[in-house]
Amino acid sequence: MYPKGLSSGTMDQIRNVEKMRLSDLTTYVKVNGKSLRKKIPAFDGIKIAPEKYLGSNHGREGVQRLTKDNKRKLSAAVVSRPQELGGGDVLLISSSNPTKNDWLLPKGGWDKGEDIQHAALREVIEEGGVRCYTCPLFRTLTTYTNL
């Protein structure tokens, strides 16, 4: 399930994260209204993303862009830091579905007026809480199948 050659310390950290994740997924669910987001008091030097980036802009009904065959247009991003800042890692988002036990790339539908890169950058901010400064386009898929 994990890459070969990870140190025992890294595996300990992964196990701890997985335990916390299982607990969080049963505690913080839409049904009971609890959220993983919490208010962090302001402090000197804090940088806060504008509120417009902290949630879905519109929802799915009537405003997301669709393909000619009526499928949602999706963007995803593979995000890493530059090598000089410790790159080689990839940003993954924990799935909110407790039955999946998945880690995912930040992704989501295009909003009206967006192109593939703008949608991908917005999803990275919304889902990953980080800001990308560049987003080179590697590949566009017009059709996909969920496996």
UniProtKB/TrEMBL annotation:
InterPro entries: NUDIX_hydrolase-like_dom_sf, NUDIX_hydrolase_CS, NUDIX_hydrolase_dom. It comes from Phytophthora megakarya. Residues 70-147 form the Nudix hydrolase domain. GO terms for cellular component: cytoplasm; nucleus. Keywords: Hydrolase, Metal-binding. SUPFAM superfamilies: Nudix. The keyword Metal-binding applies. This is RxLR effector protein. One of its GO terms (molecular function) is hydrolase activity. It comes from the Eukaryota.
